[in-house]
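Instructor's aside before we start: the two examples that follow are unrelated to each other. I chose them only because their records fit on one page, so don't look for a connection. First example below.
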Amino acid sequence: MKYVKATAILPEKLILEIQKYVQGETIYIPKPEAAYQKWGARSGSRKMIDDRNASIKTAFKSGSSINQLSEEYCLSIETIKKVVYSK
């Protein structure tokens, strides 16, 4: 997170109002909930994992064992079970 000097972006009246509550402290102003993105949405990681999990489920339905999938995808047996048995 990068810091931005309040005097560079906020109007003076607003700074004076904020100073009634806090002076010389660092405050965090969160984004509105509408601006939140789920993990991996921006980088594409979420889609990559979803595609991988779909491939694992398809392979399992086609007869691959959990041990084979664990070796093929370099994931633990427990992780493969979570993927295969999730809805």
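Example two begins here.
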Amino acid sequence: MNFNFYLLKSFRILLFPFSLIYGLIVITRNFLFNKQFFKSARFNMPVICVGNLSTGGTGKTPTVEYLLRLLRTDYKVATLSRGYKRKTRGYALAHESTTALEIGDEPMQFHYKFPEVAVAVGEERIVAIPQLLHDRPDTEVIILDDAFQHRSVQAGFNILLTDCSNLFTRDFFLPTGDLRDQRQSYKRAQVIIVTKCPPTLTEGEKKVIRDEIKPLKDQHIFFTSMEYETPYHVITREERRITHNDEVVLFCGIANPRPLKNHLGEQAKTYSELLFADHHIFTIDDLKEIEHKYRQIQSTDKFILTTEKDGVRLMKFQQQLTHLPVYVLPVRHQFLFNEGERFNNLVKAFINNFHTQSKTP
């Protein structure tokens, strides 16, 4: 822990009165939804929501990608995100010439990796869903990205994520803590996934976490770890494995780079880092700084590494990147305790039951 960490922590504690005000607003809002003073819309469509109770990275993007891989061969799937930090507003459906500036980095990543999936953005989900269904009337499943706290749309299947190292049960409201919703809201979820667990998590550790969360009788709880795959070049898609001889320049603009740094520390000989704010919009000067840091390394075993989210924000510099060894590191969720199939079956059962019931006269 460094001085800046303690300084930030002390500053957040001083903001405790604002957390109380924020918490009161959140609790009041939830009360009004629960008592139906505020209405939630339901759609005649299987809607799966992926979200969390806190800010920061809990693994929502890899979870959405997991669902897309699981469902895309059997169903016409669409994703709907807010499109955070994009330069546009309102509803938009991704097309061949869409950029990350128009729809945001996570939706652009979905569009880039799953071109057969309808990828849409819109701040108001209740408005965007009818527009999406109008544009893609053959849609059979909608996945809402980061929408658990947006209660204007009532999803039929809610997947709540919580970071193993920062469980929502130990957190507090913003800005002192990271919670943007109250802890009790976890009860709305059908599935809870504890993400970013150590791959070596034991049954005993699993029980401790489960007992702390206290899932309801009808809730299902799963545990996942982050699995990094082989890096590939951001433009050419050529793969390159990380070796213990490599000296790497790591740059990224994500909420929680700690797991990535830990992984790189284990795999590479050394690495230097350039960390940017979450969802940072890269400039040509940023790229020059990254290249300069790379050129300073004397070793021939060297390359530049970033995340897939950051990679899609760099595509506007395609000409410059063609001649630079900039690789992106894919990441997936790995279900622990051999429970991936049980999760898959729950998701597919929800969709199939929904379609069966909708056909019943």
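The chain has two domains: 39-225+335-359, 230-329.
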